[in-house]
Amino acid sequence: MASGNKLFGKRIRELREKNNLTQEKLAEILDLDYQTISRIETGYYFTSYENLEKFAKAFNVEIKSLFETKHLKEELDVEKEVIKMLKKATKEEKKLIYKIVNDIIN
User: Fold this and answer.
1) pLDDT values of the chain reduced to their tens digit, one per residue, 106 residues
2) How many domains does the chain have?
3) From the CB of residue 55, how many other CB atoms can be counted at a distance below 10 Å?
4) 83 and 46: one domain?
5) How many CA atoms lie within 13 A of 65 on its CB side?
6) Together in a domain, 82 and 64
7) Are residues 54 and 87 in the same domain?
8) Which is deepest, 26, 29, 56, 61, by most CB within 10 Å?
């Protein structure tokens, strides 16, 4: 199960990238330190209500949209399941999995 802060952070990153913003540019728009943006995106830190309003305005969305993370939760859960399976795989199976995934992604 993904934590709330991590999901929120992934959502902020998703919206930031959708708006073609770097962490530095978003920090400038929000009048925050870029490290704060990084900490929020990694789930290390949450933010204040005042900053939620700033995020919503910067992304041109309602505040509630910042918390629409169901699709991200499912993605994180899938990643965790894949990692669990990889831990159980033999060395040869891992090599084969790597080749398959590499062919698909690259």
Assistant:
1) 457 899 999 999 999 999 999 999 999 999 999 999 999 999 999 999 999 999 999 999 999 999 999 888 888 788 888 899 999 999 999 999 999 988 888 7
2) 2
3) 24
4) no
5) 12
6) no
7) no
8) 26
Q: How far apart are CA 96 and CA 106, in angstroms?
A: 15
Q: Which residues fall within 8 angstroms of residue 28, CB to CB, at 6 or more apart?
A: none
Instruction: State whether 63 and 11 are in the same domain.
Output: yes
* 86/34 same-domain check: no
Helix or strand (DSSP H, E) at 93: helix 91-105
The closest alpha carbon to 19, from 76, 70, 66, 69, belongs to: 66
Burial of 59 (0-12, 13-18, 19+ CB in 10 A): buried
Same domain flag for 15 and 52: yes
Instruction: Say yes or no: 51 and 96 in one domain.
Output: no
Q: How far is CA 89 from CA 4, 83, 86, 97, in A?
A: 30, 10, 5, 9
Structure tokens at 81: 């399941």
